[in-house]
Amino acid sequence: MYGQFGGQYVSNELKLRLDEIVKAFAKAKEDESFKQEYLQELKDYVGRPSPLDKAERLSEYCGCKVYLKREDLNHTGAHKINNAIGQALLAKRMGKTHIIAETGAGQHGVATAAACAMLDLKCTIFMGREDIIRQNLNVKRMELMGAEVKEVVRGSSTLKDAIDEAFDYLVNNDDVFYLIGSAVGPEPYPEMVEYFQRIIGEEAKKQIIEKEGRLPTSIIACVGGGSNAIGIFSDFIADEEVELYGVEAGGKGIETRQHASAISENNIAIMHGMKSYFLLDDKGEVRDAYSLSAGLDYPGIGPKHAYLNFIKRVKYDSINDDEAVEAFKLLSKLEGIIPALESSFAVAYALKLAKTKNKDDIIIINLSGRGDKDLGIILNQ
């Protein structure tokens, strides 16, 4: 599906669980009643469509037209709810009673907890100890909605390790559905996450044509595993005149190797059941990523993004922590919008890209979430 990338590199035991999901997802996609139920929940529960907002003061600052796709205004405060609702509905259709999920920044955990509360499903969230400390407010939100948050202490105690723990739990429990939040993992997860997130790009295309009568010049999104980015990119991939930019976390600088920019090192490996680009150590083993942003602190990238990089349809670049923090503050002051730290990497890249644009060019930034959860981190910088 993604050239040499992707796949299903898993044990036979896990393959049995995944094959069940593959079949159920294929049937659900062809069932018009499932699609309509999903879209109705997005409208009534999530609050879609999310606005495409022209950021007037940011546009003036940048010297071109800058629009924000406002995923921060969704219920639970980020794009993650689009996918959580879709997969939770699929799990219920399959007769599963217990949802598990991983989370880094906590936004996917919060979205999953909300979906499970609404659909009356048991919910367990795996979260690394380091991320629990960084994102304690989101932990409390999950628990308030009835989820159990399990602390993960293996490895670096971050997102990568939470995913490992969740897969182990899936193998050993028949009643469980693993609701992955990012566009990573073995098939069918990357395809499924894209399917439930592509609503972002479908809406954005209609909205920008209504507002400007044409397609944008450029679209920018942050990339960890890559769910928000693949969501907004999907409907524009065939429009070759539209520049697509995926922004990874540059941490303390690419040269320091303390970053989360997997594509920058051009190493292909296998982890979490997929073949993609990963950060590797001198022995060829996947090494820990680093980012101030818990949601981008992942040592790889989703296989669709790896493929889009390989065929040069999307340009992937990085922004360091300091640049993202400054962009976080700038957007807050100019527009009265406090972005998620993750989204701030995309905002920071837009500030650089705008220097190469003219006043009639159009940049869309996917504002993947709101920044309440990150205020403690920002204030400590």
Molecular structure report:
This protein is 45% helix and 16% strand. Helix 10 packs across helix 11. Strand 7, helix 11 (227-233) and strand 8 form a beta-alpha-beta unit. With 381 residues, it is α/β, with parallel strands linked by helices. The strands form 3 sheets. The protein has a 6-stranded mixed beta sheet, with helices on both faces. It has a 4-stranded parallel beta sheet with strand order 5-4-3-6, sandwiched between helices. The protein contains 16 helices and 12 strands. The model has no long low-confidence stretch (mean pLDDT 97). The protein has 2 domains: 12-43 and 80-193, 3-Layer(aba) Sandwich (Rossmann fold); 48-77 and 198-379, Rossmann fold. The chain starts with 11 loop residues before the first helix and ends with a helix.
Which terms would index this structure?
Rossmann fold, 381 residues, four-stranded parallel β-sheet, 2 domains, 16% strand, alpha/beta, six-stranded mixed β-sheet
Instruction: Report the strand count.
Output: 12
Helical stretch tally = 16
Q: Helix content range of the residues, please?
A: 40-55%
Radius of gyration: 19 Å
Write down the CATH class of the largest domain: Alpha Beta
Write the H/E string, N to C. HHEHEHEHEHHEHEHHEHEHEEHEHHEH
CATH topology of the largest domain: Rossmann fold
Distance between the termini: 42 Å
User: What percentage of the residues does DSSP assign to strands (E)?
Assistant: 15-25%
Strand order of the largest sheet: 1-2-12-7-8-11
Mean pLDDT rating: 97
Largest sheet: 6 strands, mixed
**Integer tally of domains:** 2
What multimeric state do the chains show? single chain
Structural class: alpha/beta
CATH-scheme architecture of the largest domain: 3-Layer(aba) Sandwich
Q: Enumerate the spans where pLDDT stays under 50 for 5 or more consecutive residues.
A: none
Instruction: Please state the overall shape, judged from the principal axes of the Cα atoms.
Output: globular
